[in-house]
Amino acid sequence: MDKNTPQSEILIEAWNVGFHSGGHQILKGIDLSITGGELVTLIGPNGAGKTTLIRAILGLIKPTTGTVRRRGGLRIGYMPQQLVIEPTLPLPVYRFLGLAGAVSRRQCRQVLEEVGASQVWKTAIGDISGGEFQRVLLARALLRDPELLVLDEPVQAVDINGQTELYELIGALKDKRGCSVLMVSHDLHLVMSSTDRVVCINGHLCCAGHPEDVSRDPSYIALFGDRAAANVALYQHHHDHHHGLDGSVLDGAGDDHGEHSHG
C-alpha cells in the first residue's frame, strides 16, 4: 500500500489538448502534468470541459488535437462523476465492490474500512446515503492500489460538513499511500488547504498555480466573482461533535478533533 512514487516522476502529461464534438469546441490548447505525490485540483464553471479533459487524460476518449502521455504501467484509480445504479437492485455494497475485478472480500473490506464506511458492508447500494455512496466509490477506486487517483467531483450529493471531512480523507489517503491525486472540484475554498496546485479551465487554460495565487488571478475572479475569491480565505470554528456519513450529528465525539475549515 505504501509505495511512494518518486516526487519528481511525471505520471501524466498533456500537451495542447483540444476536443471537438458535434461541431462544438469543448477544449482548446490545454497543457497539464501530474507528478509523483502531488494533489492537483481542476476547477472551472459548469460546461468548462473538466470531465472531458479527465476522460481524455484517462484515454477514455481521444483528443481531437494534442497528445496525452501516461507513464508505462501506471495504475490509475478512477472515481467518475456519475455512476447510476438502479435503486431497486438488491446489490449489497460488498458485491458491488467485488465487481471491480479480481479482488478478494478481504481487500474489499480493507478499503471500505480505510474510507470510514465499513458499517455499510452488507447494506444495499440503494439504501445508503449520498455521503456513504461517495465513500464506497472512493473505496472502489482504491482497489486498484493506484499510483494516481482521479476523482471527478468526489463530494457531490454530500452536505457541507461531509464535504470537508471527505476532502480531509482524500488528503490523508494521498499521504498514507504515497499516491498522486487529480481531483475535479467547484469549491476552491474547501480544497485550498490540501491542494498543491490548482488548474482553472473554461474550455481553455485560464490560470494555474498555488491556490492562493489562483484565487487572486483576474481570470479566476472573472469566472467566479470577487465573492468567490474572498471565500478562499478559510476560517475556523470549534464544536464538540462530529458528523456521520449521512450528515447526522455524533454526540460526544472528541473534543480535540473539533476544528474544521469551512468557507
Main beta sheet: strand number and arrangement?
6 strands, mixed
- What order do the strands of the largest sheet run in, or round the barrel if closed? 5-6-7-3-8-9
Helix percent band = 25-40%
The low-confidence runs, each spanning 5 or more residues with pLDDT under 50, are 233-263
- Shape summary: globular
Give the class-level CATH name. Answer: Alpha Beta
How many helices does DSSP assign? 8
Average of per-residue pLDDT values? 83
- Strand-residue fraction? 25-35%
Gyration radius, in Å: 19 Å
Number of strands: 13
The CATH architecture is 3-Layer(aba) Sandwich
Number of domains: 1
Which structural class matches the secondary elements? alpha/beta
For this entry, give a set of tags:
13 strands; six-stranded mixed β-sheet; Rossmann fold; 8 helices; 30% helix; globular; disordered C terminus; alpha/beta
Summarize the structure.
With 263 residues, this protein is an alpha/beta fold. It has eight helices and 13 strands.
Please provide a written account of the structure:
- By secondary structure, the protein is of the alpha/beta class.
- It has one domain (10-262): Rossmann fold (3-Layer(aba) Sandwich).
- It has 8 helices and 13 strands.
- It has helices at 50-58, 93-98, 105-114, 130-142, 160-177, 188-191, 211-216, 218-231, and strands at residues 10-21, 24-35, 39-43, 65-70, 76-79, 148-152, 180-184, 197-201, 205-209, 235-238, 241-243, 249-251, 259-262.
- Strands 5-6-7-3-8-9 form a 6-stranded mixed beta sheet, with helices on both faces. Strands 2-1-4 form a 3-stranded antiparallel beta sheet, with helices on one face. It has a two-stranded antiparallel sheet with strand order 10-13.
- Strand 6, helix 5 and strand 7 form a beta-alpha-beta unit.
- The chain starts with 9 loop residues before the first strand and ends with a strand.
